[in-house]
Amino acid sequence: MITSSPEDIEPDINELAQRLGTARGYKDDLIEACLKSLRDHIDYKCAYIRIPVDLSRENICSFDFAEMKSRNLYDNLKGCSESFVFAVTCGAAVDRYLMKLKVTSQAEYFVTDALASTLADTFCGYAADKMKAGLSCRPRFSPGYGDLSLSVQQPLLERLAARDLLGITLGSSLLMSPMKSITAIMGIRNEKDN
Amino acid sequence: MKKITELIKEKRVYFDGGTGTVLQSMGLPAGQPPELWNITAPDKILSLHNMYFDAGANIVKTNTFGVNRLKFNNYDQLISEGIAIAKKAAQGRKDAYVAFDMGPTGKLLEPLGELRFEDAVSLFADNVKVAAECGADLVLIETMNDSYETKAAVLAVKENCDLPVFVTNVYDASGKLMTGADPAAMIAMLEGLRVDAVGMNCSVGPDKMLDVIEDFKRLSSLPVIVNPNAGLPEIRDGRTVYNIDEDEFSDYMVQLAERGATILGGCCGTTPDFIRKTVEKTKALSYSVPEKKNYTCVSSYTHAVFVDNDPILIGERINPTGKKKLKEALRNDDMNYILSEGIRQTDAGCHILDVNVGLPEIDETAMMKKCVSSLQAVTDLPLQLDSTDFTTLEQAARIYNGKPLINSVNGTEESMSHVFPIAAKYGGGIIALAIDEKGIPETAGGRAEIATKIIARAAEYGIDKKEIIVDPLALTVSSNPDGAIVTLGAIKLIREMGVKTSLGVSNISFGLPKREMVTSTFYASALTCGLNCAIMNPFSEAMMNVYHSFRALNMLDNGCADYIAYASSAPEASQKSTAQAEETLHSAVVKGLKDNASALAAELLKTTDPLVVINEHIIPALNEIGTAFEEKKAYLPQLLMSADAASAAFEEVKRTIPAGQSDSSKAIVLATVKGDIHDIGKNIVKVLMESYGFTVYDLGRDVPPETVRDCALQHGCKLVGLSALMTTTVPAMADTIKLLKETDPDICVIVGGAVLTQEYADMIGADHYGPDAMDSVRFAEKFYS
User: How many folded domains does chain A comprise?
Assistant: First the structure.
């Protein structure tokens, strides 16, 4: 399990600007105030495993919990025989806080929602760096990217015991609760390729 | 054999340990559900149970943790086989019991997830019916990390069998459930639901449970279960292993037993050796039944509120009596207004919120359920369920997430015979009014006598005196000269009986001018007499002054810290006027200063016609920021801040217009279409439309075409806005437009959302494509011009 203090994760300002539809690097008092309040509700957690991946069949990535048919993931994992499989979340309190903001201020809701998405992604990167610990890895790849179906979420989350460790569950449309959660696979390059 | 509920009151009892860990050592492949072995490898499951009984466990958990009808079509077979195997292992052994093991559904309940509360109850109920038929000795509800799902599971057991119920929840390193509840909240709710033992399991090792056990020892009147993991999981060579061995584990279990745990066992990573060593080291320790605790509390899904010497504020603003805006909101199903009142009272410092939605022209039960669910999504304060309708009280108590405060019972037989069964089933503190068939006694002693009668009758339902909070009632001094004296006397008498009190304090001043002066003085007197709870208006400065001063004067506010914070947060009148003098309503809206816009609008309305305020101040300001947005000189957050500020100003304008006379000629129905749950774009349009003075009928997200049509017809609204974010839901948008046009060709439909384009919009028959929220507002303005 990887965790972090809410204060230690700084949002990627450019990613935030993209989500808010503002100019690159844009910051203002509202964003600062929303970030400060949001941090009171964030509880970062990451669960991960390091397991083999078998790429012996074209466009099939075989893990010990599922076979994933995806050309894009297959291409991403080329040169890897192991991978990290992980899930991160900002916690359920963020969802409740967003519900409250939806009632009290659409401006704060809009900005906070974008901030929470950005922070989830930033924490995902932070956790990935912790896992790597000197290993050479491929860029992380999430269900829903390219042709990797969201349906792999179910076995992936079960393999990680994500419900027990992180409180993540899946809805009927395969979206996760808490909303600000991310799952990902990150290939570890074989040593000869490093 | 003794019932397990008797045994746990006589001696320390032991659960078994981990299931998956042992089964994997027997060859269970990673990723395969262990429950399947009930059918395919029953001998191995039998061996597992025997190993645990041989190690000294009294209770084995059936191998049914993850079974439910959502996951397994043959759930009933898996349960019946699982119980049969465990019973076989228990046969012929002394003090050996079979616990039907019931874990979480794997789905999160509303409002955070999408599983409805009653569907969760039904899912668990199907399991329980099979388990009861197959002869389990008890039900263990375990590894629950959500209080609401825990309640659903307990109700399912209680409503479908008479087996004892043990409950263990998962507390993380911060001592809370994943959805926020602390031990006090869980103990309050579970004791109210009348389970037989409570405790914790999984997630952390016994070392991390040492802090949490202190809360259980302090607060629980029930035997306490502790089933920890073998420490924390670590990945070694691709395998999950735990970092505490059986020697260390059992040493910690000794400490947990010494701190009050009376039922010991293990969870993930523990094996029969862990249980054997735990039994060996703890069996000689002295044992005592947990003592009955005598505190009064209610709870939400996060925390408990204790009713004791520190005064409790119960917010009265969600009660339509004398509140025309709330009445209008209830009639119009305007949840936003109701929720805003809840949030404002939470922020104002209330500890509990009263919820009364009784109006003759609405379905009170349905509205109460909706309000309770919605309020619990936006505030974590416990709620006081306030109704004279018994069905409404029952339904609200059922769906409430926590232990509610029930308002109210009185001394009449009709009231007591209806309200006490509700409290007995769902738990709850109960406000007891000092009135009976003969009316309100004229003396303090007479009111105390009714309290005594109510407490005695409650006991017949197993409801303890500590759950009763007596409201001695306050009669207005304008027509009852001794009204205050009698009530204050009754508070003293009831306090001497060891019973808590509550009072709707504002009644005292009814019919008098400058009521706040009388009410706040009466409140101060009542506090001095020992009043515990006041149902009051937290926005009354005079009342809050009394509350904070009383606490500071009575050593209830350490270092007067709360008083100082309160006193320094209230700005002086001169400061307010200086700040506002530099601002106009127009500039406040443009800058997105919500509080200033609200105050300046209120000021302007004293001298200016409401329509002039709208048309010459608010709308021009919105147009200015709207144009800046369109010219990319301002961004969406700024536009939304201005919209928030304009809405706040509009609220002030609305206050000057008599209820029922607001202008609804400019209206729009908004919905995110069926199958789509992304509603942020629709919400942005909503707030902008409202800020421009449109009446918005917001149907929310995932809305079927028929609902959109029905709403447009019901309100005679000719303008409809539909949003969709996902490509897969555009067909649902097309279906909605088709139905609307078939119903009334004059209905105009605006569409928008990330996947929409002008071509798409044309293809599905929309009248207008709104690329952004501002464009939709401009179009709507033109539509009604």
Answer: 1
**pLDDT tens digit sequence for B315-352:** 999 999 888 889 988 988 888 889 989 999 999 999 99
To the nearest whole Å, the CA of A64 is away from the closest chain B CA by: 8
Q: Is residue B376 within 8 Å of B123, Cβ to Cβ?
A: no
In this structure, are residues B352 and B383 in contact, taking their beta carbons and an 8 Å threshold?
yes
Tell me phi and psi for residue B301, to 5 degrees. Answer: -80, 0
> Strand B165-169 vs strand B13-14: parallel, antiparallel, or unpaired?
unpaired
Q: What parts of chain B have a pLDDT lower than 70?
A: 235-239, 570-582, 657-664, 677-678, 680, 726
Phi, psi of B524 (to 5 degrees): -60, -40
Q: From chain A, pick out residues whose CB is under 8 angstroms from the CB of B179.
A: 92, 167
Contacts of B656 (CB under 8 A, 6+ apart): B605, B610
Asked if A103's CB is within 8 angstroms of B680's CB, the reply is: no
Go through the domains of chain B in sequence order and give each one's CATH number: 4-282 (3.20.20.330), 296-569 (3.20.20.20), 576-655 (1.10.1240.10), 667-783 (3.40.50.280)
CB contact under 8 A, B677 and A104: no
What residues in A contact B302, CB-CB < 8 Å? none
d(CA B214, CA B208) in angstroms, rounded, equals 12
User: Chain A partners of B235 at a C-beta cutoff of 8 Å?
Assistant: 48-50
Neighbours of A192 (CB within 10 A): 6
The string over B482-495, giving b where at least 16 C-beta atoms fall within 10 Å of a residue's C-beta and e elsewhere, is: ebbebbbbbbbbbb
